[in-house]
TrEMBL record:
<dbReference type="GO" id="GO:0033818">
    <property type="term" value="F:beta-ketoacyl-acyl-carrier-protein synthase III activity"/>
</dbReference>
<dbReference type="InterPro" id="IPR016039">
    <property type="entry name" value="Thiolase-like"/>
</dbReference>
<feature type="active site">
    <location>
        <position position="119"/>
    </location>
</feature>
<dbReference type="InterPro" id="IPR013751">
    <property type="entry name" value="ACP_syn_III_N"/>
</dbReference>
<feature type="domain" description="Beta-ketoacyl-[acyl-carrier-protein] synthase III C-terminal">
    <location>
        <begin position="248"/>
        <end position="334"/>
    </location>
</feature>
<keyword id="KW-0443">Lipid metabolism</keyword>
<comment type="subunit">
    <text>Homodimer.</text>
</comment>
<feature type="active site">
    <location>
        <position position="261"/>
    </location>
</feature>
<feature type="domain" description="Beta-ketoacyl-[acyl-carrier-protein] synthase III N-terminal">
    <location>
        <begin position="113"/>
        <end position="193"/>
    </location>
</feature>
<dbReference type="GO" id="GO:0006633">
    <property type="term" value="P:fatty acid biosynthetic process"/>
</dbReference>
<keyword id="KW-0444">Lipid biosynthesis</keyword>
<keyword id="KW-0012">Acyltransferase</keyword>
<feature type="region of interest" description="ACP-binding">
    <location>
        <begin position="262"/>
        <end position="266"/>
    </location>
</feature>
<dbReference type="GO" id="GO:0004315">
    <property type="term" value="F:3-oxoacyl-[acyl-carrier-protein] synthase activity"/>
</dbReference>
<keyword id="KW-0511">Multifunctional enzyme</keyword>
<dbReference type="Pfam" id="PF08541">
    <property type="entry name" value="ACP_syn_III_C"/>
</dbReference>
<keyword id="KW-0275">Fatty acid biosynthesis</keyword>
């Protein structure tokens, strides 16, 4: 589903941003003590040196609340009309986690719901939140992307245990004009369910449960066919980035900062190379935080803004790819906003 170059009018505008990672850090050397791997192997194949993980008893909502608090503080507001939570790891299958997050943030009885698009979740949530604002249903929306991804990872599987981590990022969106800094530009979204087997958790859903048989060993964990996923991720993120830039009236040379889902350093390098975006214009934090699922993009934006790598006026191109398969891209000019 492609966006469209639209005339100036009511639009969703980023006015606050915040992020959070749990305090427990796990280095490659620590993982190497229990897995058949090494720091050099992990760095060479993923670009990751360390990651943050939840402690026992910590859930996705705990991460989401912390990031939400920071985004609300950044936006200097205590009230929104809706809360959208992008996650693959809800606190429980039912109910959605977003209402609990809204309640814990003291936001009252606002609309609150989850969006599930795996690592593309933030962009799908951004499109949904922008629609609420553009339609007039909301003046302000808190969009949170949070994942306790390590809770669905097999700790003995070195192909996934070294990559995935936990964290949360959030933005506050307000109604504004399409031409002002922070306005969400044209978006491109897509999916291919025929390839859903490339990224999946086989057990735990209605299909496995209705079969009346216990899950096969390991089926409760996340699994990914890495080689095929790599190819599709590079192709889809490259194509959607090109399309989003074109819809915005940008040349790729106009992009000041390229923010891609932090999936794997090799994927990021391949996409940037195909787009012709040099290293100095790429935002990256995968070395420090790993792949945090839906939280990846807002966590990257928040940390980059806090560190001064992303400043007001930068033309930003965002893209992501995840299970589903799902993918997307969007543009915006970064506003004058303080990351918390």
């Amino acid at each position: 589903m492609s966006g469209a170059a639209r005339p100036l009018g009511r639009s969703a505008v980023v006015c606050g941003i915040g992020s959070y990672v749990p305090p427990d850090k796990v280095t490659n050397d620590e993982l190497s003590r229990r897995l058949d791997t090494s720091d050099a192997w992990i760095r060479s194949r993923t670009g990751i040196a360390e990651r943050y993980v939840v402690s026992p008893g910590t859930a996705t909502s705990d991460l989401a609340v912390e990031a939400g608090l920071r985004a609300l503080k950044s936006a200097s507001t205590e009230q929104v009309d809706a809360v959208v939570l992008a996650t693959t790891t809800p606190d429980q299958p039912c109910p959605a986690t977003a209402p609990a997050v809204a309640a814990r943030l003291g936001l009252g009885q606002v609309a609150a719901f989850d969006v599930a698009a795996v690592c593309s979740g933030f962009l799908y949530g951004l499109a949904t939140s922008s629609g609420l604002i553009a339609s007039g249903m909301a003046e302000r929306v808190l969009l949170v992307a949070a994942d306790a991804f390590t809770t669905i990872i097999n700790p003995e599987d070195r192909t996934t245990a070294v990559i995935f981590a936990d964290g949360a990022g959030a933005v506050v969106l307000r109604a504004g004009d399409a031409g002002e800094p922070g306005a969400v530009g044209p978006m491109v979204l897509g999916s291919d369910g025929e390839l859903s087997h490339l990224i999946e958790v086989p057990a735990g859903g209605s299909r496995q449960r209705s079969a009346g048989t216990p899950p096969e060993p390991g089926d409760q964990y996340f699994r990914m066919l890495g080689r095929d996923t790599y190819r599709h991720a590079v192709e889809r993120m490259t194509a959607t980035s090109q399309e989003a830039a074109e819809l915005s009236g940008w040349r790729l040379d106009d992009v000041d900062r390229f923010a891609a889902h932090q999936a794997n350093a090799r994927i990021l390098d391949s996409v940037a190379e195909r787009l012709g975006i040099p290293a100095e214009r790429q935002l990256s934090n995968i070395e420090q935080v790993g792949n945090t699922g839906a939280a990846s993009l807002p966590l990257l934006l928040s940390q980059s803004a806090a560190e001064g790598r992303l400043t007001a006026g930068h033309r930003v191109l965002l893209t992501a790819f995840g299970g589903g398969l799902s993918w997307g891209a969007a543009t915006l000019v970064w506003p004058e906003v303080q990351s918390v």
